[in-house]
Write a structure and sequence with these properties.
By secondary structure, this protein is an all-alpha fold. Helix content is 64%, strand content 0%.
Length: 312
């Protein structure tokens, strides 16, 4: 019995196709066969040993992939240009790509991941559970074993499916970053209450929020002197004085010591009682300045308040 497809010649594979599909249908599909070729195939069929089901399946698959590949090339036209069967992926949004890929089997996921940018690849892989992600990465490492025809077939199938994806819609999936932005707009007392409630009810979300949420106390608890120096130099001296109102003397001294000598000499603490609203507004202004510094690339907030790994 024939059990290894790698030992078969092209003529033997055609002979197996003849036995599966019948001579009439095979000749119709393989139009390039000459009368001489057909006689040779008939001779091979007569002399051939029995063929295992696995080999028959592989022969049918090879023929199908070859047929689809030729059909794709005919539709694309232009023999001199290299074919780009996955070019349609460039027109999909991240959400559309994820929606299309997630239901597919591991090998198809791996084939698609090999075609898209690193940024898109990360977004899809992040939506997979760890076990499936590992299987996809292993498959990506063995794609050179997949026949070209199979690759083209996958592309053709996915392109057809892409026509039925939902239209692009701009929306947010929420998450820790969005919640952190909402909290930063609240009054400090409300902000603390909601943070406490989230920490109690959803600890994982609370940890995610910490990566993006900066509280007034965090500035002095987590930021090193060089960041505090740059931050305080980016805001007005009056704002610093109001923000320092009611703070521990050690914190006030640390801030003043990180100011340029000229600003140190000009710094005057706020005397007498002031409204809590004025102090809160001043502190919010400094927090906003810190966030702007992060946007400008001065530091990564997660490294300090979100438990990011640091090296001294």
């Amino acid at each position: 019995m024939i059990t290894d497809i790698k030992r078969l010649s092209g003529l033997q594979k055609v002979a197996i196709l003849f036995t599966i599909l019948g001579e009439g249908l095979s000749i119709t599909l393989l139009k390039e066969l000459s009368k001489t070729d057909i006689r040779k195939v008939r001779s091979v069929v007569r002399d051939m040993d029995s063929v295992s089901f696995g080999v028959k399946k592989r022969v049918i698959e090879e023929f199908y992939y070859s047929f689809v590949s030729e059909k794709f090339q005919a539709e694309e036209g232009g023999e001199d240009e290299p074919k780009k069967p996955f070019e349609f992926l460039d027109d999909l949004t991240d959400e559309q790509l994820i929606s299309m890929v997630l239901p597919e089997d591991t090998k198809v996921k791996a084939i698609v991941m090999a075609q898209v940018s690193a940024e898109k690849r990360k977004k899809v892989l992040d939506r997979l559970d760890p076990e499936e992600k590992g299987r996809v990465l292993i498959e990506m490492g063995t794609l050179n074993e997949v026949p070209l025809g199979a690759i083209v077939s996958v592309a053709s199938d996915l392109q057809e499916k892409s026509h039925f994806l939902p239209k692009t819609v701009a929306f947010s999936r929420g998450g820790g970053k969005e919640v952190a932005e909402i909290l930063s707009e609240m009054e400090p007392d409300d902000e603390s209450k909601y943070l406490e409630a989230i920490s109690r009810e959803a600890p994982a979300l609370a940890d995610e929020i910490k990566k993006y949420h900066l509280k007034w106390e965090d500035i002095f608890e987590y930021f090193p002197d060089n960041i505090i120096r740059d931050l305080m130099n980016s805001v007005e001296l009056d704002l610093i004085a109001m923000g320092m109102k009611g703070m521990d003397e050690a914190v006030v001294s640390r801030v003043i010591e990180n100011l340029p000598q000229k600003k140190q000499a000009m710094f005057e603490p706020i005397e007498g009682a002031v409204s809590k609203r004025e102090v809160d507004n001043a502190r919010k202004g400094i927090i906003q300045a810190a966030k702007q510094m992060e946007k400008d690339g001065a530091f990564n907030l997660e490294d300090y308040v979100g438990g990011g790994e640091m090296v001294e």
